[in-house]
Amino acid sequence: MTHSDASAPQRGRPTVLDRAAIATATFRLWSRRGYAAVGWKEISEATGVSVRTLVRHFARKSDIAWVGVPAATRRLREALAEMPEDVPVDEAVRRGVVASMSDDPMSPAGPDWIRLVCTEPELAGTAPTAYRPWIDELADFIARRVPGITPAAATALASGYQAATFAALVAWSETASHDRAATAAEEALGWLSIRGA
Predict the structure, then answer these.
(1) Which Pfam families match (predicted)?
(2) Which among 68, 70, 95, 96 could bridge 80 via Cys, Cβ 3.0 to 4.6 Å?
(3) CA 154 to the chain's CA centroid
(4) Is a pLDDT exceeding 60 seen at residue 5?
């Protein structure tokens, strides 16, 4: 057998992680013990994943809070791509945003996650960077659908929709006014309109 045999273990090969499971276990720890009190060792013990592997996949502990955003961005992209051209842009955006949300209680839209993000400054501080791909996706759609809009204005509108959605989720998490977070967001976004669309 040669040193380059394909069956030999390779160093540095990427590890496949269930990022959602890691996030769920970590959110539970943060909810019970507080964000600051939970370190990599505790996360490792709760998830069964080594500290070394966790740190390789998450540059900062706060990154774990945002693992659901790529999936939400993908759902947003798919919903907007399938949107018929005759649907008014306001309604299309509202439908796309609602479609991007998950019913998982530990997802970015679940009450435990919302409470953590609202009460922990480090998590709140990382939100703009985490949400940027979602905002960019929505801004691209708005730019395609609204004649004459500038890229900056499309990004500002998309950022406004993200902020309005998050505000609706915060209110929902505090009052439980609806069974589903998506219903609360849809109701709130119904009040927004895009001029010139």
Answers:
(1) TetR_C_14, TetR_N
(2) 96
(3) 20
(4) no
Rounded to the nearest 5°, which phi and psi values hold at 7? -85, -10
Alpha helices per DSSP H over the chain: 19-33, 40-47, 51-57, 69-81, 89-99, 111-119, 121-145, 151-175, 181-189
Q: What count of Cα atoms within 13 Å lies in the side-chain half-sphere of residue 59?
A: 3
Question: Is residue 108 pLDDT above 80, yes or no?
Answer: no
Which pLDDT score is estimated for 14?
A: 46
Residue 6: what are its φ and ψ, rounded to 5°?
-65, -25
Q: Which residues contact 124 (CB under 8 A, 6 or more apart)?
A: 117, 118
Query: The tokens of 84 are what?
Result: 């018929």
Average pLDDT, integer, range 52-63: 94
All structural domains of the chain: 19-65 (1.10.10.60), 68-189 (1.10.357.10)
